[in-house]
Amino acid sequence: MAKDKKNFEESMKSLEEIVEALERGELPLDESIEMFQKGIELSKFCSKRLDEIEKKITVLIEDENGELHEEKFQVESL
Question: Looking at the domain covering 2-72, what would its CATH class be?
């Protein structure tokens, strides 16, 4: 998937289209399996891309003295 140079937004759109097609349940079994596999690849790509971006994000925190401190961005687990 990365070798296709697709960006995150295009990958998400493709993944949404695959999910919609699979949810309709009108595809032949072989085509459903093929689309499911492509969906897994897209999902992995998007997840990896989000992880990469998350590592780049920093947050500026203002303390009680009004000074700004840079901290790594922490995502709360659901």
Answer: mainly alpha
Where is 10: in which H helix or E strand? helix 8-24
pLDDT tens profile 17-50 = 999 999 999 999 999 999 999 999 999 999 999 8
SS3 at position 1: coil
What's this model's pTM, rounded to 2 decimal places? 0.67
- Can you give the length of the chain in residues? 78
How far apart are the C-alpha atoms of 67 and 78, rounded to whole Å? 31
**Can you state the angle between helices 29-56 and 8-24, rounded to 10 degrees?**
150
Domain boundaries, the chain: 2-72
| DSSP E strand boundaries for 1-78 | 58-62, 68-72
CA-to-CA dists, residue 55 to 24, 52, 75, angstroms: 37, 5, 10
